[in-house]
Amino acid sequence: MRFLLRRLALLLAALFGMSVLIFLALRILPGDVASVMAGLNATPARVARLRQELGLNRSYLQQYFEWAGNVVHGNLGISVLTGRDVGVQIVSRMQITFPLILIGLLIACLIGIPLGAASIVARSARVRQSLHLLALTGGAIPALWGAMLLILLFSKGSGLIALFPSQGFPDAGWAQAGSALASLMLPAVTVGIIVGSSIMRYTRSALQEMLSSEFVDMGMACGMTRVQAVLRIGLRVVSPQLVSVIGLTFAEMITGVMVIENLFALPGIGSMLVTDVGNRDLLTVQSELFVLAAFFLCIGFVVDVLHRVLDPRLKGAGLLATAGGAQ
User: Fold this and answer.
1) Tell me: the pLDDT tens digits for 101-154?
2) How much is the CA Rg of the chain, to the nearest whole Å?
3) In contact, 87 and 294? CB cutoff 8 Å
4) How distant is the alpha carbon of residue 222 from its chain centre?
5) Cα separation of 176 and 279, whole Å?
6) What average pLDDT does range 179-200 have in this prediction?
7) What is the mean pLDDT of residues 54-82?
8) CB 79, CB 86: distance < 8 Å
9) What is the DSSP letter of 73?
10) Buried b (16+ CB within 10 A) or exposed e, 250-262
11) What are the C-alpha distances in Å from 291 to residues 57, 94, 249, 285?
């Protein structure tokens, strides 16, 4: 309980610091939303009047506390360019981005963990080397190039084997579950291959250290083969580290899928953020960035708690030791 309270306090402090950082970072950028709304030929007086109407002429302190207070009460604001509720837009876009990330991460785990373990326990040295090379090659594939290759191979219309659509998302959303799922398959496989290579390398590295550990030796002393000891004991011992890596990878994928969403014309939160940054809708962008940062920090909090639950050795350790282990 003491650990949870201290970790929760650290999370709240990080959220406060992140909100201040995002607010100040967007204020030092050249240009503002008033200039965009007024247009290129607007007079300085017109821009100044708009700034006053939008409240941009007030002190930064007043603007920050008003924004932060609204966020605390669940109000992420209204876009001054589109007039739409920012919170509603984010929730709508997350219905595309989150399933994409979850499917991509599932594919990555199905690729990374079994192949990473196989690269250690395979009897043939040639197979082990081939899997190691596969992990290195997969991680080096640029997302853009990998996505283009999958489109040429499996997309409807231009692919050699027409299986999945390569552009867009159904207007009815998840009401057309089959079409929605099909539209996410190629982007998810692209993400899954790249992320899966990283998980595969980490699994291989973690299990390689287990080969010479006392855990595997004790398993073999109890009658297990080396392969059984690595898979049954070694994989269980490294599971807290794998959970940390997968959890933080999940959080990083929130922003990592921006390129994929734009390439496959998916109206997710990544494409929304890119569009709003281009339009200089700073009030919307700061709420979007804060939601993404808060999500990242919350995932780190969950990972730290899971890491502590799965690894009994950390029960007597302090907060910093746990955080360091999660990294």
Assistant:
1) 899 999 999 999 999 989 888 888 888 888 888 888 877 778 788 888 888 888
2) 24
3) no
4) 41
5) 31
6) 89
7) 84
8) yes
9) T
10) bbebbbbbbbbbe
11) 25, 11, 17, 10
Cα 148 to Cα 164: distance, rounded to the nearest angstrom: 13
Torsion over CA of 118, 211, 124 and 106, rounded to 10 degrees? 10
Which amino acid, residue 74?
G
CA angle 191, 267, 54 (to 5 degrees): 125
Cα–Cα distance for residue pair 235/208, rounded to 1 Å = 10
Q: Which of 243, 203, 205, 207 is nearest to 226 (CA)?
A: 207
Instruction: Dig out the tokens for 199 from the structure.
Output: 């998980």
- Residue 182 CA to residue 92 CA, distance in Å, equals 19
Report the distance separating Cα 319 and Cα 310, nearest Å.
15
The residue type of 44 is P
Whole-structure pTM value: 0.78
Do 183 and 266 contact (CB within 8 A), yes or no? yes
- 288 to 69, 132, 219, 294: CA distances (angstroms): 16, 39, 50, 10
Task: Give the integer Cα–Cα distance in Å for 201 and 135.
Answer: 6
Residue 203: HSE in the Cβ half-sphere, 13 Å Cα cutoff: 30
| Count of positions (residues) in the chain | 327
Burial 104-123 (b: 16+ CB within 10 A, else e): bbebbbebbbebbbbbbbbe
Among residues 31, 10, 15, 41, the alpha carbon closest in space to that of 320 is found at 10
In a 13 Å sphere around the CA of 177, the CA atoms on its Cβ side amount to 0
Kindly give, in sequence order, each residue whose CB lies less than 8 Å from that of residue 251, ignoring residues fewer than 6 positions away: 295, 296, 299, 300
> What single-letter amino acid sits at 134?
L
Helix, coil or strand: residue 270:
helix
C-alpha 157/C-alpha 325 separation (Å) is: 48
The answer to whether the CB of 249 falls within 8 A of the CB of 199 is: yes
Place of tokens 């109000």: 75
Q: Residue 172 is which amino acid?
A: A
